[in-house]
Amino acid sequence: MRFSKKMMMSRRRIILTVTNDLVTDQRVHRSCMALAEAGYDVTLVGRRLPESVAVQRPYRTVRMRLLFRRKAVFYAEYNCRLFFRLLFTGADAFYANDTDTLPAVWLAARLRRKPLFFDAHEMFPEVPELVGRPRVKRVWTRVEDFLFPKLRRPGCAAVTVCQSIADIYRERYGLEMKVVRNVPMTFPTAGGDASKLLSSVPEGRRILLYQGAVNLGRGIEWMMDAMRYLPECEFVVAGTGDVYDDLRKRAEGTDNVLFLGRVEPEVLRALTPMASLGISLLENRGLNYYYSLPNRLADFVQAGVPVLATDFPEIHRVVENFGIGTLVPPAPFDAAKGLSEPPDPEQLARTVKETLEFWDALPADERARRFASAASELSFENDKKTLLSAVDTIFIGR
């Protein structure tokens, strides 16, 4: 019996792995959907936290309950558990998301002689949480030094989020990585009601929105400090992360800063267009931030929301090329102390006001033209072709 290409592909089972609880990882969800729509049998493996909410996806999901949540013991437990799961689970290929899942995935793929696909969402040793922790950073660098050259072998392929990171890994390891950017689907339809989230915001206030992980180096506290000079605005933070509790406590007594916590993706898509300005201020905490193109930037573009963003290379290309926001200079960063020199709050507030005034005065047709052009370019509909083509290469000769 002769099988069509689609029928053959439908028999291929791919297991994707992440260290998070699956709920808000939109990049991985888009990858799973692209693979499933292309005919692959997809299973996504992550972890379950006590506070994890249910996920319903058109592909299989598995969440492991772990004993540990932080530091080396978590990564050790996760990779051990993941390795044994992959060792005894039916699959035709394994797909590792980020360096922290790669040890288990690489070993299982090697022992089972399965194709391996790697997706680097960032330069893992350069994450801001490792700034000031040189010993831990060296461990992850050695993991990459050992494993990344092995990804050049037949039956392996890799992608990453931007050309700058791809160039670094090519020079460092001779590894050719295709670029699949952190961008959303074109004009996603809002599926939730966000009005209740802003019920406490006084009528008439302009929404300044930060959405994404509330972690070190995201400039959230800078905007919080500037809000006393922006009584006509409300700074809304949608997301959770390592410094969420600390920043929320810091906001106590402030009447125009609102922390929403975790917001479901479909509700977030309804919330984003309600903002007057999207905030994406990053500290220069290593190459990972310096070369980043945050997913929130593309989300703001798709929603037609102008941005206030740090003038880093990948961000600069988007904001300047399409004229969709204002760039601010990076704050000086002292690597030895692990601290940035914060911008002057009053000056930051003036920049916000000037940006809002500019967009209020811009003709509606010109604004629409800019965002339509940017949204067409910053769409996963473009990048998923690169992803699927790269995944196909791991099956060549099989």
Report what the structure shows.
This protein is α/β, with parallel strands linked by helices and 398 residues long. It folds into 2 domains: 193 residues, Glycogen Phosphorylase B (Rossmann fold), CATH 3.40.50; 183 residues, Glycogen Phosphorylase B (Rossmann fold, 3-Layer(aba) Sandwich). 40% of the residues lie in helices and 17% in strands. It has 15 helices and 15 strands. The strands form 3 sheets. It has a 7-stranded parallel beta sheet, with helices on both faces. Helix 6 links the parallel strand 6 and strand 7. It is globular.
Q: How is this structure best summarized?
A:
This protein is α/β, with parallel strands linked by helices and 398 residues long. The protein contains 15 helices and 15 strands. The protein has helices at residues 5-10, 26-37, 71-87, 102-112, 134-147, 163-173, 220-226, 244-250, 265-271, 287-290, 295-303, 313-322, 345-361, 364-377, 380-393; strands at 13-17, 41-48, 60-65, 93-97, 116-120, 156-160, 178-179, 206-211, 233-238, 257-261, 277-280, 307-310, 325-328, 333-334, 339-340.
